[in-house]
Amino acid sequence: MVKGDPPQDDNLFRSITRSLYATVDTPVTWFREKVVEPNQKKYPWYHRQFRRVPTIDQCYEDDPVCDFEANAQFKRDRAVDSEILSILRMRYEDCMMYEQPDHLTVCKPFWERYKNAEEAWFLKYGDLGAYADARKAFMKQKHRMVWERRNGPLSDQTK
User: Membrane-spanning residues where (predicted)?
Assistant: First the structure.
């Protein structure tokens, strides 16, 4: 026995259990390492790119799979747009903290960019509630377009 070797186990039950485990585990491990992993596309989880799916207006009414995919796409887009808005807000706040005495003039481009993005976000997602889906957003867009056709652009009315 060499120094560093694990001690010998004389327990018959443990040796049988270990051999049964190896009988089941060895082919599974070999298949995973030799077949599955070489054929997988490697990408970091945080850079996963989803393919664009048809929007809710391109789905048939009796197609629940298309509805589900459109809603998932809508939720991903909403999360991305919310993060963009959050980043723009943080940039403006950082500018205000850094440029403290002159922040009204120096940070004005950041403020305008944030307000434009906020308006665009609200036009698309505002007043939909927590359980918004693609169909509700599409109906909101339709109603807004009808209103704008009759009354002019909404952004002119809010200023």
Answer: none
CA angle 32, 38, 44 (to 5 degrees): 100
CB 107 within 8 A of CB 89: no
Residues 6+ apart with CB under 8 A from 9: 15
Q: Rounded to a whole number, what is the distance in angstroms from the first to the last CA of the chain?
A: 86
Report CA Rg, the chain: 29
Question: In this structure, are residues 111 and 91 in contact, taking their beta carbons and an 8 Å threshold?
Answer: no
| DSSP assignments along 85-118, one per residue | HHHHHHHHHHHHHHTGGGHHHHTHHHHHHHHHHH
Question: Which residues lie below 8 Å from residue 85, measured CB to CB, with a gap of 6+?
Answer: 114, 117, 118, 121
In angstroms, the Cα distances linking 134 to 124, 128, 131, 140 are: 11, 10, 10, 10
Is 95:106 a contact under the CB 8 Å cutoff?
yes
Torsion of CA 79, 81, 83, 85, to 10 degrees: -150
Calpha distance 106→89 (Å, rounded): 15
Q: pLDDT (tens digit, 9 = 90+) per residue, 41-93?
A: 877 777 777 888 988 999 998 999 999 999 999 999 999 999 999 999 999 99
